[in-house]
Amino acid sequence: MSEENHVVRNDEKNRYELYTGGELAGFAEFSPREREIVFTHTEIGDEFGGRGLAKVLASAALDDVVSRGKTIVPVCPFIAGYLRKNDGYAGHVRWPGE
């Protein structure tokens, strides 16, 4: 049986939420700025671990930020690591401290 995964942007909670099989599996918190989205924390529930869902969440969230014309600022270690492994976002990232 295949579980359907989808990611939604929840502006009220300042996070992207990943749902799998209709359940909230995880989220990526962000702090919105005028031209930037600062990712601060990513979390996948223990019961959903080991399925690669954090990568699904990161990809969808980062793609959304790029489609909105914003710059990604990765404070969250997971998002930063994902960006280092996926160079397709290089032109849309401002690393902290730059």
UniProtKB/TrEMBL annotation:
Per UniProt, which keywords does this protein have?
Transferase
Please verify whether the record's keywords include Transferase. Answer: yes
Signal peptide (residue range): none
Which Gene3D superfamilies did the record assign? 3.40.630.30
Q: Which residue ranges does the record assign to the N-acetyltransferase domain?
A: 8-94
Q: Which domain of life is it from?
A: Bacteria
GO molecular function, one example? transferase activity
Keyword Transferase attributed: yes
Q: What is this protein called?
A: N-acetyltransferase
